[in-house]
Design brief:
By secondary structure, the protein is α+β, with helices and mostly antiparallel strands. The protein folds into two domains: 3-325, BirA Bifunctional Protein, domain 2 (2-Layer Sandwich), CATH 3.30.930; 336-424, 3-Layer(aba) Sandwich (Rossmann fold). It is built from 14 helices and 23 strands. The strands form six sheets. Strands 3, 7, 8, 9, 10, 11, 12, 13 and 16 form a nine-stranded mixed sheet that branches. Strands 20-19-21-22-23 form a five-stranded mixed sheet, sandwiched between helices. The chain has a three-stranded antiparallel sheet with strand order 4-6-5. It binds 5'-O-(N-(L-cysteinyl)-sulfamoyl)adenosine (5CA).
């Protein structure tokens, strides 16, 4: 992509309303625009990151055999009256009336809709286990939307729903998804700590939140210091769930078994939340199947959320410096920023164009700064946008055939022959 033709409305000034780094950086880097409290337009650069995150989430869901669907954002109130949540959900639910005076709502979550679908089509144990998921916008009229996309009112969630015959089978599914979540977050450069949690408005008896440690997190978490020494391979359900880790509300109501020196307390950002709630929805919504011995019983269910749009902010909280964002390669909007310091010089332009085309044919995503701007502006913008690699071409490239290759994360710069830079990346 050529920056001169692109749409990245970067800001020089730090927006006054933004209290935390990720919110400031997302506004300054031109990733989102706030329309009204907690509601955002995703601009091109922000959308690229949002899409990369979605792709990783889908790949990991598909890998463990979940099936993708797409449910509507607008739901009939009737289903929520059946489950008993229509009144209970309170003011956080955006209620809508259609032209025929029918009560509708903008979905804050989708247990009712998916259970209704499964109730209609799944009649036998042979169809089980079944996990359906979607990535869809949700609306929650949060009392205090804040921190940009981290606590929005309209936000993008991956929500998955599992259906099993027995509570043992449902627990196995829960474990499988728990482990898949750790892998999903790791691919985005995040180490998530699964903490036991309250089930809140979703309900049920087993629940974990996936938290990343960040000073700006909204939750307080308590966990065993041994978590920090667990390697990725050790992070299985059986190992991790034996270590003490609890979210605030949970920690208050139970005995903490750890000696104080082993207990860590930190602020955390909740990037995912999973629930096992048995027949809470299947019973009232009539999702029942026949068992091998001919009985008819309600399905055992769980639900599994990932805050897809929140993750964009969370990744920035975990990875930035005073110059800007530092994208992990897996979610970076482009892999490389190509900076031409001599725009207008026919020879340097030709070299830069050549490299831009070469990188593009190798499927390396490049943002080419071909603007006629001062070097300082170009460097500052590229650091702000935070692409993993920067390549700088200028007078020296003409003299020596060398370009400068900079790693955004380490700051390390090397001189390298122009022909070799694509391979190096
Ligand atoms: N039905 C279940 C799981 S499918 C559910 O709704 N779970 S949840 O309420 O915990 O939400 C799932 C995830 O969405 C959270 O872990 C969080 O990462 C994200 N999330 C929740 N509220 C917001 C919000 N206001 N803004 C941005 N992300 C949010």
């Amino acid at each position: 992509m050529r920056l001169s033709q692109y749409f990245i409305p970067t800001l020089k000034e730090t927006p006054a309303e933004a209290q935390i780094a990720s919110h400031r950086l997302m506004l300054r880097a031109g990733m989102v625009n706030q329309e009204t409290s907690g509601i955002y337009t995703w601009l091109p650069l922000g959308l690229l990151v949002l899409e990369k995150i979605q792709k990783i989430v889908c790949e990991e869901q598909d890998r463990i055999g979940c099936h993708k669907v797409l449910m509507p954002t607008i739901q009939p109130a009737e289903l929520w009256k059946k489950s008993g949540r229509y009144e209970a959900y309170g003011k956080e639910m955006l209620r809508i009336t259609d032209r025929h005076d029918r009560e509708m709502l903008y979905g804050p979550t989708n247990e009712e809709v998916i259970t209704d679908v499964v109730a209609q089509y799944v009649k036998s144990y042979r169809a089980l286990p079944l996990v359906l998921y979607q990535i869809q916008w949700k609306f929650r009229d949060e009392i205090r939307p804040r921190f940009g996309v981290m606590r929005g009112r309209e936000f993008l969630m991956k929500d998955g729903y599992s259906f099993d015959l027995s509570s043992e089978a449902a627990t196995e599914t829960y474990k499988k998804i728990y482990e898949s979540y750790l892998r999903t977050f790791r691919r985005m450069g995040l180490t998530a700590i699964p903490v036991r949690a309250d089930t809140g408005a979703i309900g049920g008896n087993l629940s974990h939140e996936f938290q990343i440690v960040a000073p700006t997190g909204e939750s307080t978490i308590y966990y065993d210091g041994h978590f920090e020494s667990l390697s990725a391979e050790d992070m299985t359900f059986d190992v991790a769930s034996k270590l003490y880790a609890a979210a605030d509300e949970m920690h208050k109501v139970e005995e903490c078994p750890l000696p104080v020196e082993q207990l860590k307390t930190a602020r955390g950002i909740e990037i995912g939340h999973i629930f096992y709630f048995g027949t809470k929805y299947s019973e009232p919504l009539g999702a029942k199947v026949t068992t091998p011995d001919g009985q008819t019983i309600p399905l055992e269910m769980g639900s599994y959320g990932i805050g897809v749009s929140r993750l964009v902010g969370a990744i920035i909280e975990a990875s930035h410096d005073d110059k800007g964002i530092i994208w992990p390669e897996s979610v970076a909007p482009f892999k490389v920023g190509l900076i031409n310091l001599k725009v207008g010089d026919a020879k340097v332009d030709a070299l830069a164009e050549g490299l831009y085309n070469h990188l593009s044919t190798k499927d390396i995503e490049v943002l080419y700064d071909d603007r006629d701007e001062r070097a300082g502006t170009k460097f500052a913008d590229m650091d702000l946008i935070g692409l993993p690699w920067q390549i700088v071409l200028g007078n020296r490239t003409l003299d020596t055939g060398m370009v400068e290759l900079k790693n955004r994360k380490t700051g390390e710069k090397v001189e390298i022959a122009l022909e070799q830079v694509a391979d190096k990346i």
